[in-house]
């Protein structure tokens, strides 16, 4: 069987390595430049590759093509692959066919990384043999090739789910839905939502689907989408006879035996993290992890870098790095959890953002807006009659300096950009690290 891998990053190199280890003929192609350490990895493992080029004839002669999630689904090469009817898979799909491990897969518009990391931490803390992968950590495929884990906890994006045929997690989890990446889904919210629901499409009645009963779009999709897996809901708004919910000052999970703990004992802050903790607890109970172990994990888990990460406190001002908030809904959660007057750093590469969703929160919680991007006009135009203090910057240094001058003791400076990072930064991680560096400079 001839395998072609498109993309020479973490997932692509991992998929090529797994193919090689399984004795398959493999060729990796990247239209851009491949980073030196990945080139060294491919060379050391005798994997043939090309960069800054696509050998179309060779690619279209493959039996199975593995596509990195960063390649747009509307790319010309992808269209040609579909026209030829060649099987096209994500790394997640490809790797899952070479392991019998139980897979716990998490998707949603917001909170994926936090919840995936939390579930992994719960399992690891309980002594289970577990790997962490997908959109987070090391390549899932490389772990399948080298490590014999009994469980994998995977963060899965809609782009990865677009390219599945047989992917069947033991537990699938859909946290929430909000308008994101609509440029890749014909600006159709339901099309994007249906891509997320593909996480459950191959599941059978011996599998589990955890979902958010409070989420409006999920409710709408569930009315027309048949789920064969056992469905377990969670809610922060209503008491449930089965699933996870909030009762007075406690989170409660009713599943075989009951689990509960006080909300103020959770290590993660904010209402959205109560929902994430409920979802993670349900996964823990399905896997028969005992209550004390789950409670201990929920109390000791450390927040994910770049997601509502407290950087430091300087002269009574808290600095919070929420660089991973690349859409309006993610920033909604961040602003909602702010308790003090906030200097808000926002901006970047706009993905069709509608700021009306956060308009009221900005009015109530934000004392000044500091825009950070090559083009800040859309944000300025939206908020100019709603906020007196709006500043435009095009470097992290300037954004942090202005924010420091505006913030007084008792205030918070929040980087929660609402936008992608690629106008000024290599990635949201790069943006977050630069924020932390500038904050910590004297």
UniProtKB/TrEMBL annotation:
Domain Mur ligase central: 106-283
GO molecular function, a single term: ATP binding
Reactions listed under catalytic activity: UDP-N-acetyl-alpha-D-muramoyl-L-alanine + D-glutamate + ATP = UDP-N-acetyl-alpha-D-muramoyl-L-alanyl-D-glutamate + ADP + phosphate + H(+)
Keyword Nucleotide-binding belongs to the record: yes
Domain of life: Bacteria
Chain sites annotated for binding ATP: 108-114
EC number: 6.3.2.9
Keywords: ATP-binding, Cell cycle, Cell division, Cell shape, Cell wall biogenesis/degradation, Cytoplasm, Ligase, Nucleotide-binding, Peptidoglycan synthesis
An individual GO BP term: peptidoglycan biosynthetic process
Name of a matching Pfam family: Mur_ligase_C
Residue ranges of every copy of the Mur ligase C-terminal domain listed in the record: 306-418
Residue intervals passing through the bilayer: none
Pathway(s) served: Cell wall biogenesis; peptidoglycan biosynthesis
Chief subcellular location: cytoplasm
Cellular component per GO, a single term: cytoplasm
Protein's job: Cell wall formation. Catalyzes the addition of glutamate to the nucleotide precursor UDP-N-acetylmuramoyl-L-alanine (UMA).
Entry's family note: Belongs to the MurCDEF family.
Matching HAMAP family: MurD (MF_00639)
Name listed for the protein in its UniProt record: UDP-N-acetylmuramoylalanine--D-glutamate ligase
Gene source species: Chryseobacterium indoltheticum
Name of encoding gene: murD
């Amino acid at each position: 069987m001839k395998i072609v891998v498109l993309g020479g990053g973490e997932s692509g190199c991992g998929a090529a390595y797994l193919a090689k280890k399984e004795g398959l003929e493999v060729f990796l192609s990247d239209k851009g430049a491949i980073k030196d350490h990945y080139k060294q990895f491919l060379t050391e493992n005798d994997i043939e590759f090309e960069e800054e080029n696509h050998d179309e004839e060779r690619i279209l002669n493959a039996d199975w093509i593995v596509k990195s999630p960063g390649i747009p689904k509307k790319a010309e090469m992808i269209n040609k692959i579909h026209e030829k009817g060649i099987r096209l898979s994500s790394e997640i799909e490809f790797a899952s066919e070479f392991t019998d491990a139980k897979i716990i897969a998490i998707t949603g518009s917001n909170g994926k990384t936090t919840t995936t990391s939390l579930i992994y931490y719960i399992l690891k803390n309980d002594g289970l043999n577990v790997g962490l992968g997908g959109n987070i950590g090391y390549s899932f495929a490389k772990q399948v090739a080298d490590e014999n884990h009994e469980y994998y906890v995977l963060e899965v994006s809609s782009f990865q789910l677009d390219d599945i045929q047989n992917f069947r997690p033991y537990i699938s989890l859909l946290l929430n839905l909000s308008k994101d990446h609509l440029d890749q889904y014909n600006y159709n919210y339901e099309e994007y939502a249906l891509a997320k629901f593909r996480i459950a499409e191959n599941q059978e009645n011996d599998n589990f689907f955890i979902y958010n009963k409070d989420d409006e779009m999920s409710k709408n999709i569930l009315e027309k989408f048949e789920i064969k897996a056992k469905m377990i809901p969670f809610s922060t708004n209503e008491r449930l006879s089965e699933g996870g919910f909030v009762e007075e000052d406690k989170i409660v999970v009713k599943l075989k035996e009951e689990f509960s703990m006080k909300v103020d004992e959770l290590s993660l802050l904010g209402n959205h993290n109560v929902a994430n903790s409920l979802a993670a607890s349900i996964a823990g109970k399905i896997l028969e992890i005992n209550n004390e172990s789950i409670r201990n994990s929920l109390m000791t888990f450390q927040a994910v870098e770049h997601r509502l990460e407290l950087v430091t406190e300087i002269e009574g001002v808290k600095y919070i790095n929420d660089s991973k908030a690349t859409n309006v809904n993610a920033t909604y959660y961040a602003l909602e959890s702010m308790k003090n007057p906030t200097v808000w750093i926002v901006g970047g590469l706009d993905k069709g953002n509608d700021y009306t969703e956060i308009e009221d929160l900005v009015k109530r919680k934000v004392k000044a807006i500091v825009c950070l991007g090559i083009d800040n006009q859309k944000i300025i135009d939206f908020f100019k009659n709603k906020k007196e203090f709006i500043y435009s910057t095009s470097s992290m240094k300037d954004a942090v300096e202005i924010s420091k001058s505006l913030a007084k003791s008792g205030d918070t400076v929040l980087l929660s950009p609402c936008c992608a990072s690629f106008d000024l930064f290599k990635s949201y991680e790069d943006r977050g690290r630069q924020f932390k560096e500038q904050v910590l400079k004297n």
